[in-house]
Specification:
2 copies of one chain form a homodimer. Chain A has 14 helices and 11 strands. Chain A is α/β, with parallel strands linked by helices and about 400 residues long. The first copy, chain A, has a domain of about 130 residues: Thiolase/Chalcone synthase (Peroxisomal Thiolase, Chain A, domain 1), CATH 3.40.47. In chain A, a hairpin with a 4-residue loop joins strand 10 and strand 11.
Chain lengths: ~400, ~400
């Protein structure tokens, strides 16, 4: 095992995470985007006990600051906020997976020998944008042909849920348990967008968004930021793998609209790189932008057989005290989904859990291996990360 | 020397460029942004004789598609245009250095072992945006405090030119020779935005933008895309180094407004990584968004002493047939500046020159080592690349 000694020499061992931090995800944070990012950054640096001047590189995950905030050059402005020069800095955009893509970028910067101390900051401030702008930016994530026909992300999710119910033994009430669970987890997470529990009845009675999906099946977008510090040290949470894959862009071109090829491919690559199997995963943060996606992704990741993920929700396997807790921080559904912040918040949650730092009422016990999946668009690009605790 | 064998194993030798291509840079290209990117990509793939399905990764450099084109998820949409899945794809943003930052990203992806065949595509379609939007996005590249006081990029450049004239022996007419040279080079480049030569008199008589700078001292923004294919093969142009650095964001905080720390630091890092000195550079593509920047950057890069770069312009050293040709493709000044496309177009030009593929009337002879510098904002983040020809 050798440590990197600077530019050009590459790393023989896995990068580790030695610091994490985030802001409270919320509908509207009065602070400017740059301050949100700097706040999360400061928290991760404090957690790692690292000075900003020690950084070699800064990787900012953000989906649409130019459109949402009329702000450009976010990475450079953040270096100024942090008071640093002479680093490599850039922003990474991959729609709703911008956060994890920035993390992957930092992971590669460490492995290539460019960086020994890399800060990844993901965040979004969506409350600044008018509804027309944010709706258009989010809708344009889909394939042009589908966008032009008016198919939106919620409608894809509604069609998927309807098909799932037709093919498998799950029903509308079973699906509500995903949101019940994730809201319950978020109610124990002081950084979550939603702090209240919801009942099956409330979910079923909430307004229809894209039948059979109700409002409470859909995640809230909003404002927030999260950050992690990646280094070459041995004393943190190990990043055993970070892999990504692109899948078919147009949903209509997929062999089955319930399949998310990019999640499957990224997951399989990550398992192979980390030398683990799905059975080794103790806890997972899944991209549940819509409740039905939690099931589809759990199946693509091999954590349940196809058509069986719903059972893990209904029988409590994916609860905090179950054998495979899913989204212990509340998921996108209830922790919230400030686009560029989401992928990093998943990693923050896993690190807290793997280090045993999650508050007692949210802590998942006996875990060594965590998985996060962050998804762009309706599954056209996914990033899958496998983390291992210090004892793993 | 070993070849990469896949994820996790890193590369012992420098990545090489085996294909390049671009669209004609112009004020307004009727094709959508995605088609511009796909066209440049196809040309680079054809030049390399590589099928899109051979790609491991796609790196898109673009500054502001959400704001300029109301388009999000550009990297994923481009994979769809190219008909590929199962690659790693993301967009890199670093304002006017988005192109070179995407190139650096691909360089690291190769060196980290993630990718063996990486396509970098940079482009922008600015003609779609209304003037208020494009002006605001470009203006917001500066530090918040300076933006709020109304200081724009042209005004920074004007102040720098004025100071240069006061400190050194150059004058307004000497500076005009930068634009004369770069227009002359562009007039021989079928991909350039401007195809006509200009005279010193025309420049001096053109409208004042930010005194002492005239309209013909400022580059045109517009539409265009460029692409390069990076691989691990031995038979291309070697990427001897790609380094970047952040400098002071607020110009007011710099010890001297004529200093561009980020260019100096990125340049020094690149020389060290490539094991060359400024004396080894045979040809350079410099980020001449304003004519005065060509001098300032040439000096920061050690290609001339401080206060002496103007002499190299006036005495013909930087002409195509001089001993150190600068911007043989026309530079930003005359090839044009579609933000995300610029950094890649510099590399395309160097590859053409190093391979001897530039048309006879634009070819620079007896060269083995080329340098490109792409700058974000008014110098707050720079990327410097050193390329070596096959015979180097």
């Amino acid at each position: 095992m050798t440590q990197s000694t600077g530019s050009g020499e590459s790393l023989e061992e896995s990068p580790t995470i030695t610091g994490v931090g985030m802001t409270v995800f919320t509908k509207k944070d009065e602070r400017p985007l740059l301050e949100l990012l700097a706040t999360a950054a400061d928290r991760a640096l404090d957690d790692a006990d690292v000075s900003p001047t020690s950084l070699d590189s800064l990787h900012v995950g953000n989906a649409a600051a130019e459109a949402f905030n009329r702000r450009s050059g976010l990475a450079n402005a953040l270096t100024s906020e942090l008071g640093i020069t002479n680093v490599t800095a850039r922003r990474i955009e991959n729609t709703s997976a911008s956060g994890a893509s920035a993390f992957l970028d930092a992971f590669d910067a460490i492995r290539s020998g460019r960086s020994r101390v890399a800060l990844v900051v993901g965040g979004e401030k969506m409350s600044s944008a008018d509804t027309a702008t944010s709706t258009e930016i989010i809708s344009r994530i889909t394939h042009d042909a589908e966008y032009e026909q008016g198919v939106t992300l919620p409608s894809f999710a509604g069609l998927a849920a309807d098909r799932y119910f037709r093919l498998y033994d799950a029903d509308r009430e079973d699906l509500a348990h995903v949101a019940v669970k994730n809201h319950d987890n978020a109610s124990q997470n002081p950084y979550a967008h939603f702090d209240k529990q919801v009942t099956v009845e409330e979910i079923l009675e909430s307004p229809v968004v894209a039948d059979p999906l109700r409002l409470y099946d859909c995640c809230p977008t909003g404002d927030g930021a999260a950050a992690v510090l990646l280094t070459t040290k041995n004393n943190g949470v190990e990043v055993a793998a970070c892999e990504s894959a692109v899948g078919t862009h147009a949903v209509a071109d997929r062999p089955d609209p319930l399949e998310i090829e990019s999640v499957r491919e990224a997951g399989n690559s990550a398992y192979a790189s980390a030398d683990v199997t799905p059975a080794d995963i103790d806890v997972a943060c899944i991209h549940d932008a819509f409740s039905i996606l939690e099931w589809l992704e759990v199946e693509e990741l091999g954590l349940a057989e196809r058509g069986k993920a719903w059972q893990l929700t209904v029988d409590g396997t994916t609860d905090r005290d179950g054998s495979l807790p899913i989204n212990p921080g509340g998921g996108l559904k209830a922790r919230g989904h400030p686009l560029g912040g989401t992928g990093i918040s998943q990693i923050v949650e896993l690190v807290w859990q793997l280090r045993g730092d999650a508050p007692e009422n949210r802590a998942v016990s006996d875990i060594n291996c965590g998985l996060a999946v962050n998804v762009a668009g309706f599954g056209n690009n996914s990033v899958c990360t496998v983390l291992k605790g210090e004892e793993a």
